[in-house]
Amino acid sequence: MIKPINKDTTLLSQKSAPTTPKDTQVIIDLIDTLKSHKKDCVGMAANMIGINKRVIALQLGDLVMPLINPSIIGKSEPYDVEEGCLSLIGERPAKRFMKITVSYLDAEFNPHKQAFEGFAAQIIQHEMDHLEGILI
């Protein structure tokens, strides 16, 4: 189900709780909502649809990839960037890393460890800030 975009900074500033198999509908709703915003959004965290669970989704071309309970376990090559967000007005500065390694669960709750770089790494870092209640 496509959900409205949450713009409540009080909710967006809260840390997210772990996602469990009972939260399958949250994952589906997050993916549906991200797909509906494909023209103006490349990533989304569950708190952006009003649910404080540790799940993000990113749009990589035609592929939408959910990352459940993600954790950055490696990072290198820091840089500064300006980013925008559907939940917030305007652009804000952020420090990102060109290369990251992430441990996460997939939609079937199988564990993975994967390296990302460039724009995909930037998207993941932005959405993971949401999980920590960090507003860029």
Q: Which features does this protein show?
A:
136 residues; alpha+beta; Peptide Deformylase; five-stranded antiparallel β-sheet; 3 helices; globular
Unreliable residue runs: none
Distance between the termini: 27 Å
Number of domain modules: 1
- Can you count the beta strands? 5
Q: What is the number of helices? A: 3
Strand order of the largest sheet: 1-2-3-4-5
String of helices and strands: HHEEEEEH
Question: Can you characterise this structure?
Answer:
It is built from three helices and five strands. It has one domain: Peptide deformylase (Peptide Deformylase). With 136 residues, it is α+β, with helices and mostly antiparallel strands. The protein is globular. The model has no long low-confidence stretch (mean pLDDT 95). The chain has a five-stranded antiparallel sheet with strand order 1-2-3-4-5. The longest helix has 14 residues, at 118-131.
Q: What's the topology here?
A:
Blueprint: H1 9-12, H2 24-36, E1 43-45, E2 55-60, E3 63-85, E4 88-105, E5 111-117, H3 118-131
Antiparallel strand pairs: 1-2, 2-3, 3-4, 4-5
